[in-house]
UniProtKB/TrEMBL annotation:
The lineage of its organism: Bacteria, Pseudomonadati, Bacteroidota, Cytophagia, Cytophagales. It is a multi-pass membrane protein. It comes from Pontibacter rugosus. Belongs to the ABC-4 integral membrane protein family. It holds the Pfam family MacB_PCD. InterPro entries: ABC3_permease_C, MacB_PCD, Macrolide_Exporter_MacB. This is ABC transporter permease. It is found in: Cell membrane. Residues 21-228 form the MacB-like periplasmic core domain. Its main location: membrane. Keywords: Cell membrane, Membrane, Transmembrane, Transmembrane helix. The chain crosses the membrane at residues 21-42, 284-308, 341-368, 374-397. It comes from the Bacteria. The keyword Transmembrane applies. Residues 292-407 form the ABC3 transporter permease C-terminal domain.
Length: 414
């Protein structure tokens, strides 16, 4: 019953000094708000951006011929030239992967291409990509109008095309491009679809892109009779399996490419989640910075609370003397003031957590468009735990001082 009586006495003391309690609680609340708010904002933005990157193909990897982008010599040594990834090799890989992953094959057919309609033509800045049925899904490309390639068109190499928004705007002003005809690379193609606007978020690349069936791209003659170099993109259904599937893909591609034992890979695998990895690193630094700022604020709040509790002890010296004269032990006095400090911290902490969640989500919504409401339960629990710790640390010395007061001297105190 002593503990319950001490709790009641602490609550009565808090209620009796309501203004001081509110001001002290606000000091704690602002400290917790800064801690929880910053960490909530970081976690909310990270969650939102991670979802966006996932939709952009973050849970995937690309396989390309090693040395695609090598230029000249490195450190005075000529880079080894590896053969292109052929269609047969890419197709074998796709067949071997089966249902383990979603594999798409594509080939860059032409860049700096001029595309013409019956009355208009584009600047020579259009790229042509031959793609299979999984290409749009793996690269997060969506149709605004029209349809995707049919199985028949993919197998037969029909002259049909899906065009980007900028091409449609240039060639077919105020017209529906679907069903119209365009000419490029010496062939006439029927437009069956138009891609959604990519804009600056995607670098605008798909706005100036034309997709044609993979078989159609294989049929188009190339200058110097050079072969197409096929790229492979593998989408993973479960993000946690990415590393495992990459290992499987490496072994299968070495077998398909006939890379000898001990020889380096003649291809390279690039993870598409580098942005997510960078985001994790950046968010880690932001969390550390936010935690430091919040803890510094809480340190100031704890000093303020200790000062308030010392004042409270001085003001209630006579009360302490009366309680000791009636039989209260030093332990009970110490317990009463500790409970009082902890309750003040918890009240301030609850208010601070609520303000921090609101502030963090508001910041995340302003910075990361489309960020949903996020409640960081880990930081909520951590914040309230820190409040208890701050209450114990800040209240212990005043409580200890109160418990050591001499009852006779306390009763004489005016």
């Amino acid at each position: 019953m002593n503990l319950l009586e001490n709790i009641r006495e602490s609550l009565r003391a808090i209620k009796g000094n309501l203004l001081r309690t509110v001001l002290t609680g606000l000091i704690i609340a602002f400290g917790i708000m800064s801690l929880v708010g910053i960490l909530t904002a970081v976690d909310s933005m990270k969650y939102s951006l991670t979802q966006t990157f996932s939709n952009l193909g973050a849970n995937s990897f690309d396989i390309r011929r090693k040395g695609n982008n090598n230029r000249g010599n490195q450190q005075g040594r000529a880079e080894k030239v590896y053969p292109e990834i052929t269609y047969e090799q890419a197709k074998s890989y796709k067949d071997m992967m089966g249902d383990e992953a979603r594999v798409s094959l594509s080939a860059f057919v032409s860049g700096a291409t001029v595309v013409k309609s019956e009355t208009e033509k584009t600047n020579p800045n259009i790229s042509v990509v031959a793609a299979d049925d999984n290409y749009m899904l793996n690269n997060n490309l969506n149709l605004e109008q029209g349809r995707d390639f049919s199985t028949f068109e993919q197998e037969q190499g029909t002259n049909v095309a899906i065009i980007g928004n900028e091409i449609a705007t240039t060639l077919f002003k105020n017209q529906d491009p679907v069903g119209k005809y365009i000419t490029f690379l010496g062939r006439r193609f029927k437009v069956i679809g138009k891609l959604e606007v990519a804009g600056s978020s995607m670098g605008g690349s798909s706005d100036r892109r034309i997709l044609i069936p993979l078989e159609t791209g294989r049929q188009i003659p190339r200058a110097g009779n050079t072969q197409l170099n096929f790229s492979i993109k593998t989408g993973i259904y479960k993000a946690e399996e990415l590393t495992y599937v990459m290992g499987e893909a490496t072994g299968r591609m070495r077998s398909i490419r006939q890379d000898a034992l001990g020889q380096e890979d003649s291809f390279e695998i690039r993870r598409s989640d580098s942005l997510v990895q960078s985001l994790d690193e950046i968010s880690g630094y932001l969390k550390i910075g936010g935690a430091v700022i919040g803890l510094i604020t809480l340190l100031g709040a704890s000093v303020g609370l200790m000062n308030i509790m010392m004042v409270s002890v001085n003001e209630r010296t006579r009360e302490i003397g009366v309680r000791k004269a009636l039989g209260a032990t030093a332990h009970q006095i110490r317990q009463q003031f500790l409970i009082e400090a902890i309750v003040i911290c918890l009240l301030g902490g609850i208010v601070g957590v609520l303000m921090g969640i609101m502030m963090g989500n508001a910041i995340a919504a302003l910075i990361a468009e489309g960020a949903g409401f996020f409640v960081p339960w880990v930081w909520v629990i951590s914040g309230l735990t820190i409040c208890v710790v701050v209450g114990v640390i800040s209240g212990y010395y005043p409580a200890f001082k109160a418990s050591k007061l001499d009852p006779i001297e306390s009763l004489r105190y005016e």
